[in-house]
Amino acid sequence: METCSNCERDIGNLETAHVHKGHIVCTQCNELLHTAPAPKVSSTADTVPPTRNQLGREKPVQTIEKTGKQYKAIMLVGGLVAIVGIVFSLSGDAAGIPVTLMGLGLFLVAKIAAWWSHG
Ligand SMILES: [Zn+2]
Is the pLDDT of residue 49 over 60? Predict the structure, then answer.
């Protein structure tokens, strides 16, 4: 008897075992894995705004006060790097954790530097 690599369910003799990216999966998981990316594409088009355009249109640097401008820009970058790292680790990428830590480190260093220069 074979076991589904996705839900770890035993695949019965009367069921058909499917192969998804080199893993043996049951019929349900096979359908799930095949149909999953489809709604994702349509939902991202509807709900998620185009971040590139947003960043190009309004630069947050302009509204930030003069003194902490550089540090806040670094904090922003650090925060974005950390978010990217979190997204990577959620998707199972091994690079996610070091990237997250790097982003958080950058964020903290900039925050400390901003505090230091401010008073
Ligand atoms: Zn399964």
Answer: no
Q: Which H helix or E strand runs over 18?
A: strand 18-20
* Structure tokens given for 27: 């019929």
Q: Which amino acid is at 95?
A: A
Report the Cα–Cα distance between both ends of the chain, in Å, rounded. 69
Specify the 3-state DSSP secondary structure of 15. coil
Residues with Cβ–ion distance below 5 A, ligand 1? 4, 6-7, 9, 26, 29
Query: Per-residue pLDDT tens for 87-100?
Result: 999 998 888 999 99
- As given in the structure block, the two tokens for residue 47 are 């709900």
| 0.70 surpassed by pTM | no
Which residue type, as a one-letter code, is found at position 11? I
